Amino acid sequence: MTIEVDAAVIGTGQAAPALAVALAQRGEKVALFEGALVGGTCVNNGCTPTKTLRKSARVAYLARRGAEFGVITGEVTIDFAAAMNRMQDRVDTACTGLESWITGTKGVTLVREFASFTGGREGAFELKAGDTAIRAKRVYLNTGTRPFIPPIPGMADVPHLTNESLLKLRTLPKHLIVIGGSYIGLEMGQIFRRLGSEVTVIETAPRITAREDEDITQSITAFLEKEGLKIITGQAVTKVERAGDGIAVSVGGERVEGSHVLVATGRLPNTEKLNLASVGVNTDQRGFVPTNGRLETNVPGIWALGDINKRGAFTHTSFHDHEIVLANHDGGNRSADDRTMCYAMFTDPPFARVGMSESEARQSGKRVLMATFEMKNISRAKEESETAGMIKLLVDAETDHFLGFAMVGISADEILHIFTNFMAAKGTARTMKEALPAHPCVAEFFPTILGKLKPLQ
């Protein structure tokens, strides 16, 4: 069977369904291809399940602290299978709703097969998905990434978990060893610690969250260690092997034994099956697809959206990609080069950042003002007994525009948006300092913090 469409969208990550539906609503004929799970990483083994499970872990954490708030709960026990089934119910509901939306949209055909190029040229790309041949005027790639498993001696010979297989467990790990001290590793490490596992995090870099400023890392390390996570940094993992019914990891001169090992050491792009060479689409050495600011590849008529274009491996950047492409399809002139990167790590408390870090500001050549403030000095944080963390603000001394915001603390993931929006609107520090805040809130302290700005030394 051969079908001809205006647009072929490959993959159903965060950018693809919304783009496919929007194009169909503009009268185009669209084919949307998915060879695995509709919804991609976010819905199936990323944001949706992990934030659902995070809530179960937080409830357990608060229940254990009940007496601190005058609430006597007795012994707290975890029904791990029930928590995981609650998570899966949320995933199933999200997937069902998403698929119903796609298949219920006139003009969109959902093809449940992997699609790859077979040839063609601008204006007439040829693809194959199972037994279906497709000719498309335009093609949009949104195939996402998968876990990277490092070539550690012994790793291929032992059972190991990724962010995907971890969520299939229904028996709580006695001791979870996490290789990787960034977002996935730390989020899942804390969640499983709160659900009752012993947790050891191993990071080969000198510190966890190595891309962030050192004081931010110290703040995150402090609350994780307070909850009982063991963190090993600056040592290479030299071997992974079986140890009875469990796993042993050799790191530095230490041997760490656990029941399970989670590998959270980065991601690889899902581009190897696309046969991009057949149409001349360039990739880098790892398989990522470079684009210009309009998210166009080097081949006219082919776009790359989401994680595979290396413009931010986040759900929100992928969705934002679709908005840029759609706006330009409608005659606009939007560019991914114009956005200021923001992200959050959903530990508890969360970490959030937009714009420059302090180290980046020091290297920028700009005259920069900085202020920091400890969460333990914020009234709302003290009232809620959530005093872990800190806030850091960076301001351009010449323009009074914000250069960066970083926060570890209660509601950091939501407060982040004050600064993403303020920076997008070119708001000044003076405007924020003179605005009227509401009390009692964490964000009401920003005028106070801005009053402490000093030149970077």
Describe this structure in words.
It is a single chain. With 457 residues, the chain is an alpha/beta fold. The chain has 3 domains: 2-146 and 268-338, 3-Layer(bba) Sandwich (FAD/NAD(P)-binding domain); 155-265, FAD/NAD(P)-binding domain (3-Layer(bba) Sandwich), CATH 3.50.50.60; 342-455, Enolase-like, domain 1. The chain is 29% helix and 26% strand. The chain has 12 helices and 22 strands. The strands form 5 sheets. Strands 1, 2, 3, 4, 5, 6 and 16 form a 7-stranded mixed sheet that branches. It has a 6-stranded antiparallel sheet with strand order 17-18-21-20-19-22, with helices on both faces. The longest helix is centred in the N-terminal third of the chain and has 24 residues, at 80-103. The mean pLDDT is 96.
- Output the number of helix runs: 12
- The total count of strands amounts to 22
Apparent shape: globular
Helix content: 25-40%
Task: Please describe the biggest sheet, giving its number of strands, its sense, and whether it closes into a barrel.
Answer: 7 strands, mixed
**What fraction of the residues are assigned to beta strands by DSSP?**
25-35%
* CATH-level-4 superfamily name of the largest domain: FAD/NAD(P)-binding domain
